[in-house]
Amino acid sequence: MPSGSSAKKKKSKRKHASRRPVTYVKQNKKAHSEVISTLHNLNKAIESTKANPSLTKAEKEAHIKELQKDVEEAGGIAVYQVASKRGESKHGSFNSAKWVVKTLKKHKVKPASVEEKHLQLLDVGALDENYQKWKSWICATAIDLNPQSPAILQADFLDFKKDVSQVYDVIVLSLVLNFAGDPIIRGKMLKQARRLCKIDGHVLIVLPLPCVKNSRYMTHDLLKEIMVSLGFTCIDSHDSKRLAFMMFKKSAGAAVTHKVFPKKEMKNGVKMNNFTIVIK
Ligand SMILES: C[S@@+](CC[C@H](N)C(=O)[O-])C[C@H]1O[C@@H](n2cnc3c(N)ncnc32)[C@H](O)[C@@H]1O
């Protein structure tokens, strides 16, 4: 039997729970995902305008200006990131770092050189300092186009460390490839990951599951094939209800084939999306 005071506490907890504004939580969740999807769509529209061969330079500029105005009206990229961060902490509690660390441990990933104590990890598109908890063995560099905290470096991954190569043991691209609206930019991100990854290093990719499961142009296997052509081997892969997780190793002996991967329809269906990655 609960004591009088603990019974009281439980009763008060229940009272609070029943008073909890359920609709508030639901509405917020809806609002966050609406912001995220509006900005994703505007981003995609900007990239497809840039790539539209039937528009003149002036038409492109005018259209992009309009779309950028819409981005600002929707709150801009900062609001998008706050929404993502809130969505992460309040609703999904998804944090790719937990999966990254678990998978690094599973595969006994160590720094490429024996003198190094820490794994050099690059977290691309970081909303937070995600690897602080493991700082005794992971030295993380977090970058983002529009950092939300002073601990994150402001940098475009595509221009990052242009003068050096093979810098990181681990590169994390979590929900970043799908953020870029242009399939060619996504391909460039994968090539950049190859350049910055040490031999025997790893690239870990997280994507929304529909990008590889319900796209006309992309599948799990095609993404693996692209990575193989860039000199990687897939060593771990699984799907959750909403996300696809893949870990690739840059193998010393693997040949880079420089194969071209154009946008190519693989399946079709009315409810399918158009996510793809293009390697030129
Ligand atoms: C959906 S958030 C992903 C956040 C986090 N990695 C996660 O897994 O939840 C995508 C982030 O990638 C960043 N991003 C997109 N392209 C980038 C680039 N080229 N260089 C650096 N950051 C980039 C965006 O600014 C945005 O904050």
TrEMBL record:
Bias-annotated ranges (Basic residues): 7-19
InterPro entries, sorted: Bmt2/SAMTOR (IPR021867), SAM-dependent_MTases_sf (IPR029063)
Pfam families: Bmt2
Region (Disordered) residue spans: 1-31
Keywords: Methyltransferase, S-adenosyl-L-methionine, Transferase
Gene Ontology MF: a single term: rRNA (adenine) methyltransferase activity
Listed EC numbers: 2.1.1.-
GO cellular component terms, A-Z: nucleolus
Chain positions recorded as S-adenosyl-L-methionine binding sites: 125, 144
Enzyme class: transferase
Biological role: S-adenosyl-L-methionine-binding protein that acts as an inhibitor of mTORC1 signaling. Acts as a sensor of S-adenosyl-L-methionine to signal methionine sufficiency to mTORC1. Probably also acts as a S-adenosyl-L-methionine-dependent methyltransferase.
Family: Belongs to the BMT2 family.
Protein name (record): S-adenosylmethionine sensor upstream of mTORC1
Organism per entry: Owenia fusiformis (Polychaete worm)
